[in-house]
Amino acid sequence: MRRFVIVGHRASTTGDFKLDDICGGAGRMDILIRCINSSFFLSHSLRKDVEAFLILQGGEDAPKTLRFKGDELRYLNPDERSTASLIRNALLKKLGESEINASPGIYVSRRGLREVLSSLVECGEIVYLKEEGEDIREAELPEDIIFVLGDDRDLSEDEERVLKEHADRSFCLGPISYHSDHCITIAQNEMDRRV
Ligand SMILES: C[S@@+](CC[C@H](N)C(=O)[O-])C[C@H]1O[C@@H](n2cnc3c(N)ncnc32)[C@H](O)[C@@H]1O
Fold it and tell me: Which of 6, 178, 184, 188 has the most ligand 1 atoms within 8 A of CB, as the residue to mutate?
């Protein structure tokens, strides 16, 4: 199982954004939506063996985490607007202590990065995607793996500290800085080639 954890530093947690403003008012939710696309979409189907976590850290109700589960997902389409609508509906749900199911394959909770990473420790190796990391091409990778990456901003020093409690290895995907969704595509390709 592959998992991707993307830290959305300014991404809205309140769901009161306009669908025409996902790059602005929603705190670069467009980046996170493209990460969802790269996590799941194949040419003619969805990857079922993938889970993606969007850690939303913007707005007055932060943090919240959206969990997308490939084998349960329905109504996910490649256009950013319809996914923004699924996200907005999830964020408008009344939320208590526990994670709730907002729509098929989409879950929402009040967890932040630390809680999400702690919950994933038993699920596989947690690794950090970082430009200064070890070359992924040279690395042995387990089948059960959790990739952690930033949005348009790198992880802050505090976030890196939290991550390093759980991740021993950092991997570089290439010699230049890529968009987050492209990083996911490259990581997927690396994993696909090793099966
Ligand atoms: C758009 S980048 C963040 C900003 C970027 N560091 C910059 O200076 O413009 C988004 C995230 O993708 C990951 N990333 C980007 N390029 C990478 C690379 N070559 N190798 C590994 N991870 C990378 C990192 O996790 C990074 O935080």
Answer: 178
